[in-house]
Amino acid sequence: MADTMDRPRRLPDALDGDRWCNETAIEFLGDVTYALDGDGRFEAVDEALLAFTGYAREELLGEHLSILVDEAAVETGEATIGKLLDDRGREAATVEVELLTATGDRVPYENRLRVLRAASGAFQSLVGVLQVTSDRTKDRGRATELHDATRRMRSAETAEEIGEIAVEAARSTLGLRICTLWLYDATEEALRPIASIEEATALLDTFPTYTAGNSVSWGAFVEGEARVYEDLSTEPDRHDPDTPIRSEMILPLREFGILNAGSTRVGAFDAADGHVAKLLAANAEAALGRADREERLRSREAELRRQNARLEEFASVVSHDLRNPRDVITGTLELVRETGDLEGLEPIERATDRVERLTTALLTLARQGRTVGDCESVRLEPIVEDAWAGVALDRASARLVVDRLSDESTASGTIEGDPTGLQQLFGSLFANAIEHGGPEVVVEVGSLPDVAGFYVADDGPSIDPARRERVFGHDYTTSEQGIGVGLTIVETVVGAHGWELTVTESERGGARFEIRTG
């Protein structure tokens, strides 16, 4: 082995050419796959090959293929590739090889070689795909099942689907009766079971959640190294001292979780079992990575759609709500020029004030977006009072009544929320009540009687039940001075917190907004 590694062999000169495969292309293939350059050195390897051989990626890339096969296999490969290059009508061939792992094990493989050419016919790269040929997997039907499971995992959209396919493949392909996939929950820092074979469910009754220090499975996950236990009962760090499982294979799936296979017999797994299980785990890991990337892509696309919708909303608000004050300003200026009566400028002042309030509301809405800042435990009463002071400075006759925000039912009036968002919420509701209820409106704020949450009610005009679903639209207003944006801000803040908002009629016949926080 050492002599072979010290004396790298060069593949036929006809293999010289531009490199075609890279890491991304190789990973996409989904099998135990690698690519060689014209010198017979690895230019790309997939996760399954790393899992089988025990080498790190950086230990293989750039190394000659003789690091994994003996000299006889290299010579056989050279001869086979030479024939492929001489016969332009033939692009693929299969040879039997023994793979040499980092620990010195020899595992029989079927190596399917394919020469990849450019449109001009020039060589681009050599790709090899390995399939285990142990006694357990020599049966073509089982091999087909494993490859079919790999293809189905690549098509699955969720981790749960991938887990179900993986554990079922372990049963049908390897004959395993105890197999479970745990997914890592970054929020709770725990491994949670998401899929298991029915036989395992019947045997174990319940499956644990693994956390730091409570199991050998957690240790394997953190270290990122596969573990095989001949007799689990001798391991002091096992999760359940009374577990009926004796033999266990623990296969980490990088940051995604672990795949565990077990048996009630001592020493149930041989080397071939371990290698095939690693192949299944590597393909499940690749599928989980793809599903995670696609989910993040879908989330980004959904966020982009929301942002585009908000931009359209802003454009609509600006074009709709600025048109009226603009027309007032233009018409008034023309009238003043014609008459010279400066007292006629008063409508311009009102229109300018409306534009200023609209601009402020739009900026608030834009900054708030669909998210909230850091939530914390805050008292509602001071926030309510500050919001009222900011809205009702020039509305001395309007009155605020705070009812039951500091009793035991509301935990001394505290709530988990973003203080800035809450002040915007109350300020918008207060401004809405004053605009529609008039300068002498009475606004009441209190906690809901039967559920967690609070309400804001007034004694102004009620909202027609048929229109209540429309009141949060940016273009809804029943007041000539209304800007039609405030209640959109309310809905945005409530939605960003994950709360529920409803509109009803108050006891005094006005509008009542109820926010349920639990």
Describe the structure.
Helix 6 (140-155) packs parallel to helix 10 (271-321). The chain has 518 residues and is of the alpha+beta class. The radius of gyration is 35 Å and the shape is elongated. It has a five-stranded antiparallel sheet, sandwiched between helices. The chain has a five-stranded antiparallel sheet with strand order 7-6-10-9-8, sandwiched between helices. Strand 6 (178-185) and strand 7 (190-196) form a beta hairpin. The protein has 15 helices and 17 strands.
Give the arrangement of secondary structure elements.
Blueprint: H1 2-6, H2 23-29, E1 32-36, E2 42-45, H3 47-53, H4 57-60, H5 71-86, E3 92-100, E4 106-117, E5 123-132, H6 140-155, H7 159-174, E6 178-185, E7 190-196, H8 198-204, H9 216-223, E8 227-229, E9 247-252, E10 257-263, H10 271-321, H11 323-339, H12 346-368, E11 376-379, H13 380-391, E12 399-403, E13 414-417, H14 419-437, E14 442-447, E15 453-458, H15 486-497, E16 500-505, E17 511-516
Parallel strand pairs: 12-14
Antiparallel strand pairs: 1-2, 1-5, 3-4, 4-5, 6-7, 6-10, 8-9, 9-10, 11-13, 14-15, 15-17, 16-17
Helix pairs in contact: 3-10, 6-7, 6-10, 7-10, 11-12, 12-15, 13-14, 14-15
Record keyword descriptors for this entry.
518 residues, alpha+beta, Beta-Lactamase, Heat Shock Protein 90, 3 domains, five-stranded antiparallel sheet, 17 strands, 42% helix, elongated, disordered N terminus
Produce a short descriptive summary:
By secondary structure, the chain is an alpha+beta fold. 42% of the residues lie in helices and 21% in strands.
